Amino acid sequence: MRHFRHGLLVLVLGIMSAAAFASSLPPIQPVAHVDLPRFMGKWYLIATIPTSYGRNACNAVETYTLQPDGNIHTTFSFHDGAFEGPFEHIESTGYVKAGTGNAVWGVALFWPFKLQYIVAYLKPDYSQMIVARDKRDYVWVFARTPQIPQDDYERLVARVRALGYPLAKLRKVPQRWPQPAATTAGGG
Q1: Cα-atom radius of gyration of the chain, to the nearest Å?
Q2: Can you tell me the mean pLDDT for 145-157?
Q3: Candidates 3.90.1170.40, 2.60.120.330, 3.30.930.10, 2.40.128.20; correct CATH number of 27-176?
Q4: Which entry of 91, 141, 143, 165 is 20 to 30 Å from 42 by CA?
Q5: Are 131 and 116 in contact (CB under 8 A)?
Q6: Could you tell me the pTM of the whole model?
Q7: What pLDDT score was predicted for residue 75?
């Protein structure tokens, strides 16, 4: 628990220092509309410009659950440093900003701080997305599956670049999940 609190303190200090150096780029344009029930569930982190928490994440997953009050419970979980590394997770609450088509949130890790969360790209079939911030300090590329075709990855990276992010900081997140057991024809 002590390691977790230290990680949160470092994260908050990093975000506050990044705010002091906010870029002069125009605000990120969110997608027009997010169907929240359809958006909920598990998203695998494919690539990121990470916060200090989760910088060396493997098998990183963000899970969203719509609450009765309209807020979103989020859980970010991963193994730190290696697939067999320590399991870490952090829970937070997303507050949808009114008048944004559900595409802009404030995410509270702990009171009173809310981090900006903009759905900057969402594939029409809700299989891939990019979450960005106006400050261009952090970005998250997600998919519903742990791996995506290389062409899709390159298109998503091009979108990150077009948003004004420095690609040199983008990290592809290692994802390795157990494969489903093969079945034998005829029942074995």
Answers
A1: 17
A2: 97
A3: 2.40.128.20
A4: 165
A5: no
A6: 0.83
A7: 97
